[in-house]
Amino acid sequence: WDSRLLSICQELGVSRQMEFVLASALAGVEKPDPRIFRMALSLAGVAPERAIHVGDDYEADVLGARGAGIRAIWLARNGETAEGENPIRSLAELLELLP
């Protein structure tokens, strides 16, 4: 994401629902680089094994999160598949996977 992410989140009123927003343009690194995931973990004060990342881009979200030691859940709304993967098709399915 570019630097507009922060202002977009503020304008939509979603910033109030989050502890922080991490835009790759401002962080200087983007997914799938595990460093951006580690930055998010640091900002959240959470260990990788206690985090879950849900994303719709297999390479950037799933492989990137796994590279940082985070459990990744692939949201494949369009029916995408990858060998050995079991993606969810909607966020409603996410609740079934959470402890």
The N- to C-terminal Cα distance equals 30 Å
Regarding quaternary structure, what we see is single chain
Q: Going across the biggest sheet, name each strand in turn.
A: 1-2
The amount of beta strand, in percent, is: 5-15%
Number of strands: 2
Helix content: 25-40%
Order of helices and strands: HHHEHEH
In short:
With 99 residues, the protein is mainly alpha-helical. It has helices at 4-12, 24-27, 34-44, 58-67, 94-97, and strands spanning 52-55, 71-74.
Q: What do these coordinates show?
A:
The protein is mostly helical and 99 residues long. 38% of the residues lie in helices and 8% in strands. The protein is built from 5 helices and 2 strands; from the N terminus they run H-H-H-E-H-E-H. Strands 1-2 form a two-stranded parallel ribbon. The radius of gyration is 14 Å and the shape is globular. The N and C termini lie far apart (30 Å).
For the structure shown, list the relevant keywords.
99 residues, mainly alpha, two-stranded parallel ribbon
Task: Outline the fold blueprint.
Layout: H1 4-12, H2 24-27, H3 34-44, E1 52-55, H4 58-67, E2 71-74, H5 94-97
Parallel strand pairs: 1-2
